[in-house]
């Protein structure tokens, strides 16, 4: 086990992820309980995370001294490096040479940390984000890499196997960072790289059982990957103590609601309540043009419907959610100050407070692609696991302006054709999300000998790693022409197709 001591950095989970990718099990423990965690886990190595705090302030968090006396290797990252130095007799200074963003380090000395990646005298890109820096090293340490703003960009006490880096190896902007962390856990700690998602599954099942005991759990199924994986995992852990509630708002993609019901009821034998709430949602949305009101209406109705169904089932004290790590960070503001609401996502928060239930969130530590790996591990069918993300408010936010049953039906058909062509062309997995949008605009066309006056369909496809930023996908024109022809010929109500070439930012992925 690698113990990760969390000092409150936004990217601590990325450290855990890199360690997982290296095939080693890790646990994150907040610094307040790190002493207990260290004694309990008896880790073979320790990583100290970054932090928004400054070691130059009084009462700033510290690593338990026991860690430095136990003879285990330690890697301090950013704040972790600084507190290690401060605690072992070095000096830290605040503020003058701040470095944020891309920086370059120069390797001064070989170190097992750099094995196979960084040779002496070479320069490498890293990601920095610090105000303070180390200005005097504790005894036994030497400099192994420098940068313009941080003369102690990487330091090592090879005898005690203590390492510190001022930059963040866990983020993607440090291209060799993953290898560096892998060097720490394999070459320095000597941990075997045999830990896998299969092991995660076993462990998650144990944790769910320990947490839930004999109590009942309800889980909202949306048809998406996250809630599905969470539900199958929970069912494996606690069997029929789990009931799933699928609130069908009538705003899913074509055929999707049926697929969810068949898969969960018939294939997995998971108790499932299919709430046919299409009329409720579509009636409430009638005539509503404002995107935020649409989102909030759907969110509110979802909660009310879910709550009513949960009451009918009765006796459940746990609510399961397929919350992922990015949901956790996206709902916390980076600066600590108020963040601007761009769109009110309806799937994070709200429900548990209102229903006064305890939460079980077995995917909370995972990223989307890891959830997919876990889904495959659990035997979920590939087309399901690999499915593009789909927003909670569904097709309502892909129908700018008023939503009607007719428009949803038209949109479902166009969307299905578009996705079918994308799959046939073998492009589905290269794209983060692809979907059709039905514009509230009618234009004139000519079909056969007649004039048409029908809706415009916009197509969107983007690449992205996490949905936070995105680029439009560069289809070739022949492909686009083929999709447009099929949609116009096959879908009654659409006579014009356009392609959205906006990136995010400044656009968003969805249109509302
Ligand atoms: P935007 O449109 O904000 O979308 O660029 C970023 C990602 O989030 C998805 N999205 C949502 N997901 N509930 C969700 O579960 C929502 O209310 C919601 N709104 C947007 C969107 O599909 C994209 O993947």
Automatic annotation (TrEMBL):
Q: Name the pathway.
A: Purine metabolism; GMP biosynthesis; GMP from XMP (L-Gln route): step 1/1
- Chain ranges of the GMPS ATP-PPase domain: 195-387
Q: What is catalyzed by this enzyme?
A: XMP + L-glutamine + ATP + H2O = GMP + L-glutamate + AMP + diphosphate + 2 H(+)
Active-site positions on this chain = 78, 168, 170
Identify the keywords attached in UniProt to this record, alphabetized: ATP-binding, Glutamine amidotransferase, GMP biosynthesis, Ligase, Nucleotide-binding, Purine biosynthesis
What does the record give under GO molecular function? ATP binding; GMP synthase activity
Q: In UniProt terms, what function does this protein have?
A: Catalyzes the synthesis of GMP from XMP.
Q: What is this protein called?
A: GMP synthase [glutamine-hydrolyzing]
| Gene name of this polypeptide | guaA
